[in-house]
From TrEMBL:
PANTHER family reported in the protein's UniProt record: D-TAGATOSE-1,6-BISPHOSPHATE ALDOLASE, D-TAGATOSE-1,6-BISPHOSPHATE ALDOLASE SUBUNIT GATY-RELATED
Keywords from the UniProt entry: Calvin cycle
Name of the protein in question: D-tagatose-1,6-bisphosphate aldolase subunit GatY
Pathway, per record: Carbohydrate biosynthesis; Calvin cycle
Lineage, top ranks: Bacteria, Pseudomonadati, Pseudomonadota, Alphaproteobacteria, Hyphomicrobiales
Domain Stress-response A/B barrel: start-end pairs: 297-391
SUPFAM superfamilies: Aldolase, Dimeric alpha+beta barrel
A Pfam family that the UniProt record links to this protein: Dabb
Domain of life, per lineage: Bacteria
CDD domains xrefs: TBP_aldolase_IIB
Species name: Methylobacterium isbiliense
Length: 417
């Protein structure tokens, strides 16, 4: 499994003075091309899905594709929610598989930004998920999605950044030093003196939004001054658009598939190019070794109902439906399945299969009011005969290829009755 914890990935990049590209994807063509581009130069990569782009795709469907593709990738990957607009979006993103999130409160006052971000950090920490904060404001000028970022530029101040980090404890911080979302008219003038001072004071990975349009020296200087993540989308969108326009010019009656057939190659080439500029090329192996794998946990409960050990089907169905509704809404729960034994003489007749985003959810789930209420008032009184085991899910085939031993398919984290 190539999914890794983004906090580890960025700490490695920050320590080694390179930046990981965070590429916004808007469909599976973008997704596949981003991973192909990163693999072609052996670079770690961040697949990013921005709420400002949700009008262009179904978030749940594209997230499922992103998680599946990341698990099959040959380089370390994190999946990030970019520019989330609400706590509800952050909860949904974690449930669907993001292991890093960002709430965009950059246009709020410093106090309101800190308050909103602290709420996100509290939620995400309980799920093992990294949090990116943003301080200062990066506006949009022109180009893809630039209109999604109205307002004037607000550069990040060192004083505000120190207070923000102390009070929020985010894993990384997006700052404003002169870049813009979309394209800037002319070459941007970046405030490297400001960036250097913030980096020396904070000692955490920094993030640049609006990474398109800089020159080679600016990308290198960003990484040298603590920027470990560079958001990049407009350059990919422009490459895709040029490919479509060139095909249309060469063919007066093109089909849809003909128009888009060069899109993946164009995006792949741009990802490869920028990974090299960011200093990430060739870093996949070292980044993987420095990063903990992102592993989900299967919370398994087998039980018998109190009545006769099996329960009438109509009673059990209603009982299980209540559990699915109550437990499935808890943050960090990726899914809840209820099952019934096929064998009538089985030792246990029913089960829950509850998937957690990460091992950290074990504690937060156990103490969550919705779980406590359901377990104490409904489940435990109705099912005194039960066994609970938590399993960490391991990609055996991948780990077998990367090591000299074959680990068990499921490693038990805990067991209790």
């Amino acid at each position: 499994m190539a999914l890794v914890r983004m906090s580890d990935l960025l700490r490695h990049a920050h320590r080694e003075r390179y930046a990981v590209g965070a590429y916004d994807v808007v469909d599976t063509a973008f997704l596949e091309a981003v991973l192909d581009g990163a693999e072609s130069c052996q670079a770690p990569v961040i697949v990013s899905l921005a709420e400002s782009h949700f009008e262009h795709f179904d978030f749940e469907s594209l997230m499922a594709a992103a998680v599946d593709a990341a698990r099959r990738a040959k380089v370390p990957i994190a999946i990030h929610l970019d520019h989330g607009q609400s706590l509800a979006t952050v909860e949904r993103a974690i449930r669907l598989g993001c292991n890093s999130v960002m709430l965009d409160a950059s246009l709020s006052s410093l106090e309101d930004n800190i308050k909103a971000t602290r709420e996100i950090v509290h939620l995400a920490r309980s799920c093992g998920v990294a949090v990116e904060g943003e301080l200062g404001y990066v506006p949009g000028v022109e180009g893809e999605a630039a209109e999604k970022h109205p307002g004037a530029m607000q550069l990040t101040s060192l004083e505000d950044a120190e207070r923000y980090i102390a009070e929020t404890e985010v894993d990384c911080l997006a700052i404003s030093v002169g870049t813009v979302h979309g394209r800037l008219r002319g070459m941007p003038q970046l405030d490297f003196e400001r960036l250097s001072a913030i980096n020396k004071a904070l000692h955490i990975p920094l993030v640049i939004h609006g990474g398109t349009g800089l020159n080679d020296a600016q990308y290198r200087a960003l990484a040298a001054n603590g920027v470990a993540k560079i958001n990049y989308f407009t350059g990919l969108a422009d490459a895709a658009a040029r490919s479509i326009l060139e095909e249309a010019e060469d063919n007066p009656s093109p089909t849809y598939t003909a128009l888009v057939r060069g899109v993946r190659t164009a995006i792949r080439t741009e990802v490869n190019r920028t990974c090299r500029l960011f200093g990430a090329a060739g870093r996949a192996g070292a980044a993987l070794a420095a990063s903990r794998p992102w592993r989900e946990v299967e919370h398994v409960v087998v039980y018998n109902l109190r009545d006769d050990g099996s329960g009438r089907s109509e009673d059990w169905a209603a009982f299980a439906a209540q559990g699915v509704a109550a437990l499935g809404a808890i943050p960090g729960v990726r899914g809840v399945l209820a099952g019934r034994a096929l064998q009538k003489d089985a030792r246990y007749h029913h089960c829950w299969l509850i998937r957690f985003a990460a091992a950290e959810v074990l504690a937060s789930y156990r103490d969550h009011p919705d779980h406590v209420r359901y377990a104490d008032n409904m489940f435990r009184p109705a099912a005194p005969d039960r066994i609970t085991i938590d399993f960490e899910l391991i990609d055996v085939l991948r780990e077998d290829k990367e090591s000299k031993f074959t680990p068990p398919a499921l490693t038990s984290l805990s067991a209790k009755t």
